[in-house]
Amino acid sequence: MAEVVIVADEDAAGALVADAIVSLIRAKPDAVLGLATGSTPLASYRALAARIAADAIDVRGVRGFALDEYVGLPAGHPEGYRAVIMREVVEPLGLTPELVRVPNGDPATIEHAGGDYEAAISAAGGVDLQILGIGRTGHIGFNEPGSSLASLTRVKTLTEATRADNARFFDSPDEVPMHCITQGIGTILRARHLVLLAFGEAKAHAVAAAVEGPVSASQPGSAIQLHPHTTVIVDEAAASELVNLDYYRHAWANKPGWQGI
Fold it and tell me: Which positions are catalytic residues (predicted)?
């Protein structure tokens, strides 16, 4: 069972995530972070940037791997995830840009881009802490429903629901790419700690399916149940369909003080 933590809001979640990552970096200065994009993790990145600045944490050796990238966007496109990661994570946190990788969505090299990315993650020793969001369709990364639970980094076709959700970042819905390259579910499950964040009523069904539903490729997020160290941090709205809500509150309230998330 994943550990489920119910918080008041995104800022409270961000404080918990920042605590966990700061503790990791202090123990391992060359820690490897798995980086998600989108609006969900932004409060966590803001909280982490504040902690790094306030506590003078040396992050020059910290490495990072983004979950995914669009295929076919021009180099330097502001909504390409390479640009987003640099703008929202690398610069605010003060990470070393050369140590942060994003899958290569260039169509000219896409046939071997997945294998190249898997090799880079392995060479880095694997991801220590992977930040995840979850889509309304239950996708983690860009692993849409039907994705193999053993899948590795590869090209996927986005659902129309996902393209519609991401259209807010583009001038027109037609500009949202049809394809992406994403870490697979199998790749994600290799990380040593998964931290899944979800906020708002629109995510409630996906959260319940991921945490308490049957493990199924039809609900990609349910793969987190197969991981030995998963933390799910949600607000009240996103937690509203969880059956075992009272137990999750009880377990968190009585968690030993020496245990982090």
Answer: 68, 139, 144
Question: Are 150 and 218 spatial neighbours (Cβ–Cβ below 8 Å)?
Answer: no
Q: Rounded to 10 degrees, what is the CA torsion of 221, 178, 33, 109?
A: 130
CATH 1.10.10.10 describes domain 3-259: no
| 3-class secondary structure, 108 | helix
| Letter string b/e over residues 124-145, b meaning 16 or more CB atoms within 10 A of that residue's CB | beebbbbbbbbbbbbbbbbbbb
Q: Identify the three-state secondary structure at position 28.
A: coil
- Which residues are designated catalytic? 68, 139, 144
Question: What are the structural domain ranges in the chain?
Answer: 3-259
pLDDT digits (tens, 9 = 90+) for 1-11: 799 999 999 99
Q: DSSP assignment of 235-261, as one string?
A: ETTTTTT-TTHHHHHHHHHT--TT---
